[in-house]
Amino acid sequence: MSSEYGCLVAFRIFSTIFVQNGYIHPDEYFQTTEIITGDVFGVIHDRPWEFNKNTPIRSIGLLYGIFGIPLYIAKWIFKLYKIPWNPFLLLFVFRSVTCAMSFITDYSLYKICKILKLKPNRYLLLLSSSYVIIVFGTKTFTNSLELALVSLLLWRVVDSMAISEKVLSAENEIRNMYAFRTSITDKVVMSRKLRLLPSHNFSHCLEIGTILAVGTFNRPTFLLFAVTPIFYWVSRGFYKNNNRFIKIFNIRIIVLFICTLPGIFIFILIDSFYYEHITENEANLVITPLNFIYYNIQPSNLAEHGIHFRMTHTIINMPLLFNVLALLFLGRLQFNSFIKIILKHHYHLLPNIYEVKTLMMANVFIPLILLSIFPHQEPRFLLPLLLPIVFSTCKYFSSHSMKNFKHILPVWCFSNIIGFIFYGYLHQAGITPMISHLFQDIKDATNTYVINSHTYSIPVGLLMIPKLNESLLYINQRHITVYDLGSSLDPNSLYDTVMNISQQITHKEELTVYFALSGPLTKQFESVSNASSLAYTKKNFFPHLSMESLRFYFTSMIDLFYHDNNMPYISLTELRDIFSLVLYKITIKTE
User: Which residues are listed as membrane-spanning (predicted)?
Assistant: First the structure.
């Protein structure tokens, strides 16, 4: 591997563990770390509705396999060496796992290049320089696991295609060699040589079946990314021998289905026991992918999570994630040439559909179409397209191609730097440092109340507060309550809401309430609070950029530059405050 790739690998590892405080979406905590942390440590956590015991739509098996086992091992080691836990160490374990998982994509791409006798360096450089793998690929999303699983699937399918190509070429060569020989001896020799050829019909079948089972129980959307590789796996080799097409096609599908059954059965059992559907008194099986599909095919359910324009993935999310690669891929499709070939009936000029490059292009195009059917469309849903789109567009980054596209490399580098800074270092980046601060500040508090507004939800599991033990009724136990006010209230209403919540909390002693607020709303909130003589201290966590406060950023910047600025220079302190998360520690005297 080149030194450039080595530097990018080191940067990915370092930035994942020590730099990236960016918080992309609540699901990166609430579908993974909150559940596992709550179960392993027995701490207070926010368990989302997807994991309710009645009709769960998320499987627990893979989460325990990927995150639970390393966390149990770390817990044992920390206990052995008397190392105290804190939010940073907890995130260190989770992020180390996801960072390691991200290299499955690198390794899969490397193996594909080796199979096809391509030099892997340029492909790996393009992949590892993408902010998608550096930021999204190393977050604790189920989508990040899906990226790794799709990459593994593509590798095994490409390897199966190469094996079939090699075996069938040897078979045709043997048959051609003895085509005009009529003696019995020659026919016996030919038959013996044919029998010595390795079997290829079911190559990697068990591995692919296992990947299908794991991927489906991780996220059922995995099937949308798997449909193209699976078609190529079951249909490989038929362009050389079409005589037994239907028979072999059907047998491969049946055998592949059988190979998925052990994995499916294991996940169903794990989920059924975990969600307590199998007990001494009852035995009901839980099939979480079916619950997931049933939930998501109902438009009313999707509307609760946000309805998007059907072309959001194509027009917005593809350029957002892959920037210049999305445009290059569009050019790679060559729609104009394709239409001309069809209209002129020059079908011999059509690309060979059984080539790997066609598989990769199809595995971008087809999942994109299928995902666009659903009206809820988020950028992270497209993460598994990373490997095929890198493979399909890498030729444009050769020294020869860049003579014609001189600006392609600077645009690629600049756009990925911007993406890394925004999602890895700015977006909701004050949340995790604030949690580390709270962890220290509330160590001796019995009851903690945290209110947040215009920020993402706070993953309280990271605070590692033990659950209430009902057998210890006469011993003071720690408790935390979180009030998420969303992003709909203006600064004046926020003050009234915070005070109403505080007054509803009854306590005999002095009461402390924490209030986390996005920077651009703090000035108005403080002016209202100061008028009422509200006692508070505050701490800023910089940087923090909340898209939930977007309109307030504009008004704050206008006020800073034009209305409140009587000096010939801009106050860097005020600018810093705007792009911070502010935590107020409000003290209220109760009678």
Answer: 60-78, 90-110, 122-142, 222-239, 251-270, 315-335, 356-375, 409-426
